[in-house]
Write a structure and sequence with these properties.
The chain has six helices and 20 strands. 26% of the residues are buried. α2 runs antiparallel to α5. The strands form three sheets. Strands 13, 14, 15, 16, 17, 18, 19 and 20 form an eight-stranded mixed β-sheet that branches. Strands 10-9-8-7-6-5-11 form a seven-stranded antiparallel β-sheet, with helices on one face. β7 and β8 form a beta hairpin. It is of the alpha+beta class. The chain starts with a helix and ends with a strand. The radius of gyration is 28 Å and the shape is elongated.
Amino acid sequence: MYKRIRKSVCLFLSVIMILTGMPVIVQAKGSTVHAKKVKQVYAKILSSEKAAEGVLDMFASSALTTYQFALIDLNKDGVSELVFTPDDGYHVNVVAYVNGKAKCVGGGFAGGESYYPNKHIFVSSTWHMGNYVSYYKFNGKEMKEVASKYNERADMVEYQDDYTYQVNGKTVTKSKYESCINKLMKGAKKQELKWHKNTVTNRKKYLNSPETVATVYGTSGDCISTFSRKNGKLTVRATDPIFRWTESADGSSNVVKTKTKRLCYSLAENCKWNVYNVGESKPSGKISYTNLKKELRNEYLEAVKNGFYDSPTSVHIYVRNNKIVEVRAVYP
């Protein structure tokens, strides 16, 4: 009986709210699940150049592994927006989930980002080659620049007051700009962004990424005496009793040391064979198992002949879920 009365009351109140124009707030079932899925979409964008196309291609010259990211809820709807900046540190952009897709909704210069969720406002600023400050309002679909000021020579004493002020895209006086900012920011509650390096570990921690972290075994200056593939397994033996960690190109792997001279793992079906140059985060080419084996064998024979066991070629072996997913030949 009580349940029937409660249902009737709820129905009656809903009708009244609709007829009187009062706002009806609908709590979407599974909204928490939706928020998690959105984060996983962001994780995929930050981990795959293919997925990033059309969203992050403004900074295509920067490897994804050089990015930093932060999560904010700019319009307080329970679904995060993704803020990212590449290693150049000059630009910052915001990605939102709009109509079932991740979309770059706006951004500006990087250096001093903050946001005010109770007013749906995002502020970007920088002192690189001048001073630039922009105020954006987010409506759930895009960020519109409401006001801005800039001075390309602000770091020069004689030009410190030489600012250009804009409101809604039109140049205005300093007093009109300040009046707009005072009205816009009245009651705004500031929040700072928390930045994270774009690594597998951080994507798993903050973006619910299903990725698994690769364990990397690497040689550094030590000759490889055995490099053989048989029955779907790769066996590697080094002259040094320790496979030592050498710097990973993607910064997303665990550091591993092992006191064994020999490593043996199954090769993943889609195992990659890449060539890297030291200090670079992108492969410079590909190499076949046969060619790499020949190179390593020649280096080993040369080392034996000369009585020392140093090798210019480093080998990094990426292991994930007990399978080799990538072999890298790293050259100086």
